[in-house]
Amino acid sequence: MLQHRHLLGIEGLSKAEITMILDLAELYAAQNRSSQKHSQALAGMTQVNMFFEASTRTQSSFEIAGKRLGADVMNMQMAASSITKGETLIDTAMTLNAMHPDLLVVRHPHSGAVALLAQKVNCAVLNAGDGRHEHPTQALLDALTIRRAKGRLHRLTIAICGDIAHSRVARSNLLLLGKMENRVRLVGPRTLMPSGIGELGVEVTDDMETGLAGADVVMMLRLQKERMDGGFIPSEREYYHRWGLDAAKLAHAKPDAIVMHPGPMNRGVEIDGVLADDINRSVIQEQVEMGVAVRMAAMDLLARGLKAQPEGTMV
Fold first, then answer.
1. DSSP 8-state class, residue 100
2. Is 26 exposed, middle or buried (0-12, 13-18, 19+ CB in 10 A)?
3. pLDDT tens profile 173-189
4. Which of 7, 189, 199, 223 is in the most buried spot, having the most CB atoms within 10 Å?
């Protein structure tokens, strides 16, 4: 059982808790491949998905996860909700409390908004991505994918490449991979590197050949144009030439290096389409599959905490 009421980020998780989530997710991954995909871990509980930012992949993954665990799942249409009419996040929390949900899955464009909501609601909250802050379940599913492919999740050389500055996925992965004693390199244009990133104990380079040399894992990131004001990259064509992953650049990594991408992909910008579909190198589809298993595990463990501490005494 997790010693937390909410799952707001990787930062608050211990190495043992990360391993606990991944171990349970392994069981759910096997269950999801069987003919009997459903359990009753969340039977009688209500899960509400609130996505203030659109994300078909993450929202559908959480929805499938909840339903396979036996929860009543409701997707709130935030674009058409009272939020757009001026209701505050605190008002929304009070409304939710009146409905007595058990699990609340939230994605929000502003960093810290999910944590604020968690302080005001009487249920467990899972962060499905908040601004540039964190995306914990993405890092966990990436970790599970790596562990399954490599047989371990420590002492690996992992290159995270592309738009680091705007990526909550990169931040959560940095935290998780660091806790698990991996060597992490950040690769990308200097305009897409956050200031002071080198202080986090990672290697930073703007050269793909240097960054990918001897890497066990190559994790490409989406170019988040919606978060840019312009001027971050010269052009998509130039970006692909210098930082897009193709066979020539991947040749600098280890021969058995795996290729990852959190999606959705901009083919021909961040990654060559043929490489993305190469079943011998790419684990992108397995990342999607592991997303359901990891989210099932996270919600199961939080639900166990709710049942053990019905008065919400956990922090």
1. -
2. middle
3. 999 999 999 999 999 99
4. 7
Residue 218: pLDDT over 70: yes
The backbone torsions φ and ψ at residue 286, rounded to the nearest 5 degrees and listed phi first, read -70, -30
Task: Assign residue 304 a region (left: φ > 0; alpha: ψ between -120 and 50; beta: otherwise).
Answer: alpha
Q: What are 186's strand-pairing partners?
A: 160, 204
The Cα–Cα gap between 229 and 216 comes to 34
Q: Burial of 166 by CB count in 10 Å (0-12 exposed, 13-18 middle, 19+ buried)?
A: buried
H/E element holding 91? helix 89-99
Buried/exposed 43-78: b ≥16 CB within 10 Å, e otherwise? eebbbbbbbbbebeebbebbbbbbbbbebebeebeb
Q: Which two tokens stand for residue 235?
A: 């052009």
The continuous run of DSSP H or E covering 129 comes out as: strand 124-130
More confident residue, 313 or 188: 188
- In the three-class reduction of DSSP (H, G, I as helix; E, B as strand; rest coil), residue 186 is classed as strand
Kindly tell me if the per-residue pLDDT of 301 is higher than 80: yes
Total-model pTM: 0.93
Number of alpha carbons in the 13 Å side-chain half-sphere of residue 59: 17
| Average per-residue pLDDT for the chain | 92
Is residue 169 a contact partner of residue 221, using CB atoms and an 8 Å limit?
yes
Residue 180 pLDDT: 97
Under DSSP, the state recorded for 10 is S
Whose CA is closest to 130, among 106, 154, 148, 153? 106
Query: How far apart are alpha carbons 95 and 203 in whole angstroms?
Result: 46
Q: Strands across the sheet with 72-76, in order? A: 72-76, 46-51, 103-108, 124-130
CA distance 156 to 185: 11
Determine the residue type at 104: L
